[in-house]
Amino acid sequence: MSIDSLRRSARATVSGLPCGFWWLWLSTLVNRTGAFVLTFLSLYLTQELGHSAWFAGLVVALHGLGGVAGSPLGGMLTDRWGRRPTMVSMHLAAAACAAALAYVTSAWAVATVVLLMGVAMQGVRPSINATIADMVPENDLRRAYALNYWALNLGFAIAALGGGAAVFLGYRTLFVVDAVATVLCALIVFLRLPETRPDARRDTAGEIVEEQRLSVLTVLRDAPFRTLVLLNLLVCLVFTAPWIGLPLSMAEQGLSTAAYGAVIAVNGVVIVAFQLLVNKVTDKRSPTMLLTVSSLLFAFGTGATALAGSPVAFAATVVVWTIGEMVHVPTNAAATARLAPEHARGRYQGVMGMSWAVAGFVAPILAGWVVDGPGPDVLWAACAVIGAVAAVGYTTRLRKALVDDEPIAIDPVHEDARPGDLPDQKPDLKPDLEDLRPGPASGPRPEPEPGPEDLTAGLEGPHGPNGPESGQGPGRRPAVSA
Which of 91, 236, 334, 416 might form a disulfide with 142, Cβ 3.0–4.6 angstroms? Predict the structure, then answer.
């Protein structure tokens, strides 16, 4: 492959997305580049403050527990308050927590701050995902989520490399840098990112139609989405297990901590180096097929860990499940956006985010218990089985719900007709939520920008001509899931 063809492929991967997306992408990169708290929290607690390893593990678990509450909270605020206010508020709250960690020393204070930080960090994610769904046409959603995920991992890689400065500057200084980077991220969102929450629907008389308010339980009444959440929870349990089980398995084989550091670094290197290529290969593929394949990659990669006995073999297993991660994360986010009604995108993303937070809290506890009891081989066998079960579930339970079909044409004369009454609509829609899903919102969508190279071109503030308008763009289905 020539240099020119590689250049054309890279341009095709990043082109055609709205300029607002690239400001969001930049804010993600800035935020994660300074993400030192999570990277060095356990070392800070044990080496700097002298707490036990047990307490350090408990505090990290509290961060995940905070995320369980923060994700639905962020989803609710995203839909009621707006995308941009939620992002700015949660980023500033996370920055305050990072700065506080540089000064508090008591066990209770540290635990409380980390818990609140978990709420804020997980609470911002529904607004980010909902913003991407608002401004990017549906046929480009998976690519947009993949690019944002790439920025997140690129930032983490930079943060890990910069962590060597802890030797000279100290952990507290790094936490202050984390706070500053998060504030800068909030400023980028506030100054350059437009509000993308769809305008309220209006009836034929021009009066605002009040949407039914949705709770977490109401969202989970959506049967296909509930299935997607439960299957994602299974995949997340498998994905989280290696971060606890892998170092213990390698230690049992007599391998050093340095060997584990090199092996787990493969995860970040593969994502940073190959996320764009994986996105190019998987673009326009069936979401059901991609979710199935990613689950099988998780199952095979984690299951094969039981057979590994050298750093190279362990690294090979990491490569396998990392490819599964690169396929699964953007595809799952795009599937969530596809199933969500336009006025409830934040809540749907919040419930989905809660499945990640639950897995982040439960999986380390379960993995540690299994390794201490039956042993690491049982852990990896269980991961393989759970991944395979998830793959079967995606294939058998979500094929119709996530089918890539043509946009449904809505006749304005019959806009109040029930789904199935119109000749071009499919009759097998969910009856319990069909009245909650609005029709297409009015208003033009922005013209796609050529890519990140035009990031600063033509902008006139957060609501300038390049800011996305509310409504559904080319390829966007009405907010009714099939």
Answer: 334
d(Cα 346, Cα 352) in Å, to the nearest integer?
10
What angle separates helix 287-303 from helix 223-252, to the nearest 10 degrees? 20
Q: What is the dihedral of CA 110, 116, 121, 126, to 10 degrees?
A: 160
Burial code (b: 16+ CB inside 10 Å, e: under 16) for 436-467 equals: bbbbbbeeebbebbebbeeeeeebeebeeebb
List, for residues 191-243, the tens digit of each pLDDT value.
999 999 987 666 566 565 566 667 778 888 899 999 999 999 999 999 999 98
Among 85, 95, 74, CA closest to 183: 95
The answer to whether 280 touches 298, Cβ cutoff 8 Å, is no
